[in-house]
Design a protein that fits this description.
320 residues; alpha/beta; Rossmann fold; 2 domains; seven-stranded mixed sheet; 11 strands; 50% helix; AraC family transcriptional regulator; sequence-specific DNA binding
């Protein structure tokens, strides 16, 4: 399988090395286990002769314009954590050229994959229009605002949609590489994950800081503050709208446009966040914690955590 790794100037060091190490480890393990016919032919390509990483390392690359169409093109993220510099970077000539190259390869049948902020580059190139995708969780409000045609689900670490694979924040570059290895050989992907000492993860929800997302909009931030004060009560959209001096329709619309969630779903997020915090920092029983976040029984809280985080109470407390 031919894999082109398209590196842009300012590439996230860990993202680039994680995918290189994952594919390199898979190749070595394939050789060791008699699967030498299964090999990932990696090539780092770029739009310049030499790419400089975020930390100033120089990476020689093959000119993308002269490279053959790959089976997979994987683009590690450029390292922009805040909306303002990211928006400026998206307007650069390099990002526009990268988008044109990605569209060309995609049109010739290549699978396209990226993680974290790299999802913005794919969206700028219209490669995610009409597709499901994920992105780095803290930039989801900006993504949702800029690319309304993309069906965004930032709670997931990996989203596979037709010929595009997207991954969540930062270290999900490793999840992305393992996903691509798994498409070629589930057994090799499992072995590679064991050698790299990493687990299969499916959700970013456990890492999301809910109030960070709420700060993207004043009304959403007000709702977040109100909700935290009423976690132990049953949720009422009527009460929430009245407390914020707005209409139910306006509140629901703003929540959807900023967070892609209903007020009730976000309220549940805050309950989950509070419950996890108490599980990690107190010796209270599950039933006691459930009551504090508004559930009559601990079994309801257990089911909520399992559904939203993909793990249970024992796993949460075991990982302290």
């Amino acid at each position: 399988m031919r894999v082109h790794i398209l590196a842009l100037n300012g590439v996230f060091d860990t993202g680039l090395t994680a995918v290189l190490d994952a594919f390199g480890t898979a190749n070595a393990l394939a050789e060791m286990t008699g699967l030498s016919s299964l090999r990932f032919q990696m090539k780092v390509v770029g739009l310049r002769k030499i790419i400089t990483t975020t930390h100033g390392l120089s990476v020689p690359v093959t000119a993308a314009a002269r490279a053959q169409t790959p089976d997979v093109v994987l683009m590690p993220a450029i390292n922009h954590l805040k909306p303002e510099p990211l928006v400026q970077a998206l307007a650069s000539d390099e990002v526009r050229e990268a988008g044109a190259m990605l569209r060309k390869w995609s049109g010739r049948g290549a699978m396209t994959a990226t993680a974290c902020v790299g999802t913005f580059v794919l969206a700028e190139a219209a490669l995610l229009d009409g597709e499901e995708a994920t992105t780095t969780w803290w930039l989801a409000p900006l993504f949702r605002q800029r690319y309304p045609r993309v069906r965004l689900d930032e709670s997931r670490i990996i989203v596979q949609s037709n010929a595009v694979v997207t991954a969540g924040a930062a270290l999900s570059h490793l999840d992305l590489a393992l996903t691509l290895i798994r498409r070629a050989s589930p057994d090799l992907a499992s072995l590679t994950a064991k050698y790299l000492v990493t687990d299969v993860r499916t959700s970013q929800a456990a890492y999301t800081v809910a109030d960070h997302l709420a700060h993207a909009d004043p009304l959403v931030q007000q709702f977040e503050r109100w909700a935290r004060q009423h976690l132990a009560e049953g949720f009422s959209l009527d009460h929430a709208a009245a407390a914020l001096a707005t209409s139910k329709r306006t509140l629901a619309r703003r929540m959807q446009s900023v967070l892609g969630k209903t007020p009730l779903a976000y309220f549940q997020d805050l309950r989950t966040e509070r419950a996890v915090h108490l599980l990690k920092t107190s010796h209270a029983s599950v039933d006691q914690i459930a009551a504090e976040v508004g559930y009559a029984e601990g079994v309801t809280l257990r089911a909520l955590l399992r559904r939203r985080l993909g793990c249970g109470v024992r796993e949460i407390r075991r990982n302290l």
